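Hi all, long-time lurker, first post. I run a small reading group and we've been trying to get comfortable going from sequence to structure in the token notation. Rather than ask abstract questions, I figured I'd post a concrete chain and ask someone more experienced to write out its structure so we can walk through it together at our next meeting. Sequence below, copied exactly:
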Amino acid sequence: MFGLSRKSNTPPAPRPDSVTVNGRALPLTIRENARATRMTLRIEPGGQALKLTIPRGLPGHEVDAFLTRHHAWLMTRLARVPDSGPLAEVGKIAIRGVEHRIEMTGKLRGLAEQTEIDGVAVLRVAGSPEHTGRRVADHLKRVARSELEALVAGHAARLGETVRSISYKDTKSRWGSCTSKGNLSFSWRIAMAPDFVIDYLAAHEVAHLKEMNHGPRFWATCRELCPRTDEAKRWLKQNGSRLFAVSF
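-- Answer (accepted) --
Happy to help. Here is the structure in token form:
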């Protein structure tokens, strides 16, 4: 089934804030653009949310009609997004591009630990199965922090730039960001990607310390820091949605 819903704790709004496709409610962000001449619907990476760009001042009933007309398209596209399911059931997770089998240690406490058993990469996780997702996510956060902080420091030193702070978030569509004050932010989910992709992400955000745009000089700086920039961009384009789709 396909339907539209609004927040129950606020008065009825002229525009929907979520869309339900086959029983699954997806957050809907609606942005007005003065230069837009038509509505554009986008499924965010991982299929976890929707973004609709509309001309400024468009009535809510036209938004509802547009979403209703496109429900078949949404169902088809969302069906292609992989549903990872609970990690305890999936039983595997990629760490720095290497698939690890998840094994429970049987212990109640302790940090997750990467090891190798009979030539197979394994992530040993403590706690009960219902906490597997959280503990795996915590491990990925530690991996992301360890890898990215070292890479950022090296790239920043090459450019002679200063990083003010680094934060880690679970974003739905962006892998990283950089402010003019030198504050960098990364999605810790990048810890699932291969090393050269993690390096590219660090180089990308550090390059913004020098060029706050995506012009030719920015990309030249990015490629100088990370020679595999183009390969990494292709990898993220082809596989990024899969990482965003992992349910923890």
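A couple of things your group might point at:
The radius of gyration is 21 Å.
The chain has a mean pLDDT of 88.
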